[in-house]
Amino acid sequence: MENSTKVLTLVLAAYGNIGELKYLYFCIMLLWYLSICVNNTAVMMVICSDKRLHEPMYILLCNLLANEIFASTVVYPLVISQMFSDTHEVTLPWCFLQMCCLSTSASIEFCSLAAMAYDRYVAICCPLHYNVLMNTRRVCIISVLVWMYPFINTMSAFSLILHLKFCGNVIDKLFCDHHLIIMIKLACSVSVVNKLAGGSSGESVNESMETMTRNSRVKRHQLNCSTIEKETLAMLRAL
Asked: CA-to-CA distance for 200 and 184, rounded, in angstroms?
């Protein structure tokens, strides 16, 4: 019979016994985390202070930098604190929160890169209409969507597993990873909807990226074909 005792904490089993090396690891992780925050904040401040950098590409780049700080803040403090723990336990709500934040951060990174790719596409293929297509209002809307869509998508996926009962509490990770399938494997009983949620969180973003890339290639191909056709007609008229 499966054990359905209510699980309140999860054990991060990947730490093992690091002994006195935990002080060295602590210093390295702390310096690495501080360097990430300082460097990304410095770049964002330079972009905000210099009016010459108030361009769509740099504004979209700020989303990527802010997301880097967000993801690092979600991971590094927990990893650093767990180095001095004997049990390496983390409460279930905090683990869910970390997984949710990491999943959102991963989606934000993909969406930010897609937005930057779209900006470069407009700049290369429609240079005369660039200022009209990528005006301040549209860039702000894109920036809001870059953060809102991953958040809504992640919340909808995580809402399906929040009420699961767990029969195990050991995760072979340094932190609560954003892959929902890890939590689903610990559940006592899982429905088909929960299994689909475990795979849909990241796949929806990948599908969106593939669709945007495919559309970009089609438009580029159409643009090249029209250019070749115009050049051919011009050569025929010259003859």
From this structure: 13
For residue 10, the cross-strand partners are 90
Using DSSP's 3-state secondary structure scheme, residue 91 falls into strand
Q: What is the pTM of this model?
A: 0.71
DSSP 185-207: HHBS---HHHHHHHHHHHHHHHH
Sequential pLDDT tens for the chain (239 residues): 444 456 677 777 777 677 777 788 889 889 999 999 999 999 999 999 988 888 899 999 999 999 999 999 988 888 888 777 777 777 878 888 888 888 899 899 999 999 999 999 999 998 888 888 888 899 999 999 999 999 998 888 777 776 777 777 777 777 777 665 566 666 665 554 444 444 444 444 444 445 555 555 555 555 555 555 555 555 556 55
- Determine contact, residues 171/182, Cβ cutoff 8 Å: yes
What strands, in cross-sheet order, belong to the sheet with 89-91? 89-91, 9-12, 170-171
Apex 96 CA angle, 93 and 97, nearest 5: 85
The beta strand positions in 104-206, using DSSP E, are 170-171
Bridge partner residues of 171 (DSSP): 12
166-8-198 Cα angle (round to 5): 40
CA 26 vs CA 74, 127, 171, 174: distances in Å: 16, 50, 21, 14
Exposure string over 126-151, b if 16+ CB within 10 A, otherwise e: eeeeeeeebeeeebeebbeebbebbe
